[in-house]
Every structure is written in structure tokens, then in C-alpha cells.
Amino acid sequence: FPWCTGVWGDQFDNLEKHTQSGIEFVERYTKFVKERTEIEISYAKQIRNLSKKYQPKKNSREEEENKYTSCRAFLSTLNELNDYAGQHEVIAENLSSQIIAELSRYLTELKAERKSHFQDGRKAQQHMESSWKQLESSKRRFERDCKEADRAQQYFEKMDNDINVTKADVEKARQQAQMRHQMAADSKTEYSNFLTKFNQEQNEHYYTVIPSIFQKLQEMEERRIERVGMSMKTYADVDRDVLPIVGKCLDGMTKAAESIEPKTDSKQVVDSYKSGFEPPGDLEFEDYGPGQAMKRTVSETSLSNSRGEGKERPSGGKSKGKLWPFIKNKNKPPPAPPASGPPSPSAVPNDPQSPKQSKEPISNRFNEFMASKPKMTCLRSLRRGGSGPEDFSHLPPEQRRKKLQAKIDDLNKDIQKEMDQKDALTKMKGVYEKNPQMGDPASVDPRLAEIAQNIEKLQFEVQKFELLCVCWSLSSPDGSYTEEQSSETQAKVTISNPPEVDDEFDDDEETLPTIGTCKAIYPFEGHNEGTISVTEGELLYVIEEDKGDGWTRVRRNEDEEGYVPTSYVEVFLETNAKGAMTYI
């Protein structure tokens, strides 16, 4: 028993102080880890706030700049930084669960175990002190009885030698001496028994009880030290476990930085701000004459000429109002935004190097078109709002062309959405007409009328912006306009009405391919024409998804197919199917 060598009862206080200091060390280490956890949480929060602060704001210039590779790289860096902050949150969570919580629970157990061991030690010491007191008491009693026996013996001998003492007194003294001797003998026996018992208990105390207690304290202390060591190793492992993910975050930042392409960004700038204006023409020589002030004579495409004409020109002439983008007139306020109408042919000077084109017929056609119907606002523009003229006449020619084409594409997408809704509602109306108990066909008419009106408005908007494209092509600075471009533009302008949707189901149509599967979650009895009965849990093939009318077309085999309520089945569309999604 290593701890028992030279350690006896007087060392209990030292051991108690040592084990208490061990507990205080564990508490101090737990506090250290707790403070580290708080630092990690605070750091992660600050990193997340930093990443969020520099995220591009919606509908702002920063969001527009994301088309540049450097801005996208910075956005990727912010996203990686957000993931990096998440790893510090993981560190804090693991430190809290694997070290703080475990050590707190262990401290409670350690304190209880230490208290129990020292209570056992105190009880053993108290028992030995009690046995020692009993031994000392029996020893003193034995000593006292022996002395009393000696005095009684001496008194008996004195009385026996005295001739003047009666025989009765001598006998009494003799009996008293015998009694004292018997009491001394009994005390001696009692003392001997207590001494034997004490020696046994003392031997057991110092060779069994105390070593056992010290051994338990030693094992407890070793477990405490081992537990602290394990916690320190866990402390390092918690950081090491997140290093691969932190490395991936850093690799992502490096990859984002390497993805920056200066040439691509510069090309984006050129494409974004390309004006389409032509450089000004050569200046003519002015001879000096006596009494005449020299006047600057410039070509039609010069900056000064366009500025001078801008005073007399209508607002449509702005398309050639700024030819040198790096020259700024500090003495004049910026020009007011032009009107939304198309540029007048007379306001656009003809390039002397290009053949003159006749632009009057298409301009007249556009003016007649704009005057024939009241001006209506596109549904998308109403939702989005906007700034600047609706025809983008405030922009340079190249930028105007891009904006007009983007506007036409958006309008066509809106038309397609409205057409899809119209198809779905028409199909639902056909089902109601065949099965009146499922719904009133007339209830669909208001919505169909509203969609038809929206389509008409959108088609009118498309015609308007496509005519703007035609006018822009004819009045473009380079004057290039071919028959092929004219035919393409005219084809775009001509918008045909959408094909009529047959309200009846075609029984002879081609077999539709499967686009997914579905599982019936409720039984459905398809008594009506066009529907199909299904049982709960039955698996079917999906051949046409819900178009917004609440019905999904399914197939059981090659000969059995029909519609079931979408809410009665759980649909799983294939990932490569158009508009694939999973819904219930």
C-alpha cells in the first residue's frame, strides 16, 4: 500500500487537504473550458453577423454586381465563412457536452466518494480512540485494585501479629484482604482481555482498515487525474475533428479566389455599359479671315453638334446625346429624362458613311399602333415597379436593345404561365360538364375570362415592345438593317391567338409516357366518366401531373387510365420530368 507507508492518523488532514485541492483543480479546469465555450459561441456569432452584414442586399446595386466573378467569389467566401462559423459552434457544443457536462457530473460523484472515504477513516479513528480509553480505564482499575489488595494484606498481617486484637477482628481483616486480592485478580483479567482486544483492533486498524481507506483514496485520486487527462485529450480532439471541414471551408475560399477571371469581368463591364454610339466625325478646317471670328465647324456626329442640337431636338433625340462618356460638363445640370416615346426619324442624324434608310413607314406604323389602343401596363411591371421610361429610351442603344429583349422574354414567360392556367381550368371545366355532381362548370368562367383578359394585355405589351425593337433596329446608329432581320422582327410582331383547347377528352390520343409514380392514401370510387377507381395503398403510374385543377392523370395498365383527385394520392415525379416535384 504505497500511500500507507509512513502515513498514519496524523496524515489524514494532509490527505484531506490534497484531495480537496484536486477537486478544486477539476472545478478550475471545468471553468476554463466553459469560458472557452463562451468565447467560441461569441466568435461564431460575430463571424455570422459579419457574413450577414456583407451579403448582397436584395433589389440593390450589390445584387446586380453579382454577375462579376470577383463579386461571386466574395459571395462564396462569405458563405464559406458562415460555414466556418458553424464549425466554431460545433466546437462549443462538443466542449459543453463532452467535457463540461461530464466533468460536472463527475465532480458530484467525486465529492460524494471522497466524503464517504474520510467518514470511514474518522469512524475507524474514533473506534480506536474508544478502545484505547477502555484499555486505559481497565488498566487504572487494575492498578487501583492491586494497591487496595496490598494495603488489605498489610492490615491483615498487622492485625494477626497484634495479641491485643480479637480473633474476630483478625478474621475480618483476613476476609477483607482475600476480597481485595480477588478484585485485583478480576481487574487483572479484565485488563488483560482489553489489552488483547485493543492490540487486535489496533493491528486491524493499521494493517487493514486504514490501508483500505488510503487505497480507496489513492484509487480515487488516480481516477481523478486520469479523468482530467482524458478531458484534456478530448479538448484537443474537439478542435481536431472540425479541422477537415474547416479545411474544406478554406479550400472553398481559395477555389473562389482562383475562380476570379479579370478578362471575363472586364467583358461584363463592356457588355453592361456598351452604348452603341459612334465616335464623332472629323472636324473641318476653318480659315482665318480679317474681322471674322473663327467659328468651330463640326461634323454631324460630333459631341458639340449633338449638344447644340439637343437644345432644339425633341426628347427622342437623346439616343445620340452622349458620345464621349468620359467628358463631363460641370457647368450644366444633367439633362432631364427623355419621354417614353420612340425617337423621331428627324431627330437621329444619318451617318454620312452609311446609306440612308427610309424609317418613316415603320415609325408611322408604331405611332398608329400606340394611338389605336389605350396604353396598358404590364402585369409584371406593376408587381415589380420600375424607374425610367417604359420604353427604356433613356438608355444607350445597346443597353436599350438588351432591356427590350429581356422585357419581351419576361412577358412571353408570363403569357405561358397564363396559358397553362387556362389549359388547366378548361380541362377542369370539361370534367365538370361531363360530371355535374363534381362541380358547376359556370363557376370556372369568371376565372377564364380574367385569364383571357390578362393574356390579351400581355400580348399587347409584347406587340408594343417588339415594335420598339423594330424601331430601334431601323434607327440604330450603324444603320445596319437587313431583310432577314426585318422578316424575323415581323414574325415576332405577329402574335397568333392561342389554339383552342378541346373541352372533351380525346379517346384516340397517343399513349402518354409515365412521368412518375403515386400511391393512393385514400380509396376513391371513380364512377364518373374520365375517372378511375383506386384502393388505399395501390401503386399507379403518373402520366400527367396536376395542372392546378386538383386532378392527376394516372395509369394502372395499358388499358386502364383516368383522373384521380390529387389530394387522394401521394405523387413522386421523376427528377428529370418537367416541373418535377413531390407533393401530397
From TrEMBL:
GO terms for biological process: endocytosis; signal transduction. Residues 351-366, 479-497 have a biased composition (Polar residues). Residues 258-403, 479-506 are annotated as: Disordered. Residues 332-346 have a biased composition (Pro residues). One of its GO terms (molecular function) is lipid binding. Its main location: membrane. It is found in: Cell membrane; Cytoplasm, Cell cortex; Cytoplasm, Cytoskeleton. Residues 258-268 have a biased composition (Basic and acidic residues). Residues 513-574 form the SH3 domain. Residues 394-471 form the REM-1 domain. Transmembrane segments: none annotated. GO terms for cellular component: cell cortex; cytoskeleton; plasma membrane. Belongs to the FNBP1 family. PANTHER family: FCH AND DOUBLE SH3 DOMAINS PROTEIN, FORMIN-BINDING PROTEIN 1. This is Formin binding protein 1b. It comes from Esox lucius (Northern pike). The lineage of its organism: Eukaryota, Metazoa, Chordata, Craniata, Vertebrata.
